[in-house]
From TrEMBL:
PANTHER family: GENERAL STRESS PROTEIN (PTHR35792). This is YtxH domain-containing protein. Keywords: Coiled coil, Membrane, Transmembrane, Transmembrane helix. Residues 57-103 form a coiled coil. It comes from the Bacteria. The chain crosses the membrane at residues 6-27. InterPro entries: Desiccation-related_membrane, YtxH.
């Protein structure tokens, strides 16, 4: 996880734990009601953690997708440039071959 997301989740968990602890200490309700409140609080915490993780997961997927697209574009550009260089090299070699054929024709007369 990134530092920012990890810190947010840690702060959320710490806040929930403190809230549950204070709630238990000052609970005016019966034990069964207190346990139900704690369970509800933990369920809420679990849902919040899932939401945070879900948003983190979406962000990571988006960044990976962007990186993948950028890499593909870079490779395509490199191949395109290489193709032009190859064409230049082939043209140069064809010119040299034509010159050699002319020289060879003169020598064979």
């Amino acid at each position: 996880m990134s530092g920012k997301s990890g810190d947010s989740i840690l702060a959320l968990l710490a806040g929930a734990a403190i809230g549950v602890g204070i709630g238990i200490l000052f609970a005016p309700d019966k034990g069964s009601k207190t346990r139900e409140k704690i369970k509800d609080s933990l369920d809420d915490l679990k849902d919040q953690a899932k939401s945070k993780f879900g948003s983190f997961e979406e962000e990571a997927k988006e960044k990976f997708s962007q990186s993948k697209d950028e890499l593909k574009e870079t490779v395509d550009n490199l191949l395109s440039k290489s193709s032009y260089k190859a064409e230049e090299a082939i043209s140069f070699l064809e010119e040299k071959l034509a010159e050699l054929k002319k020289q060879n024709a003169k020598l064979q007369k």
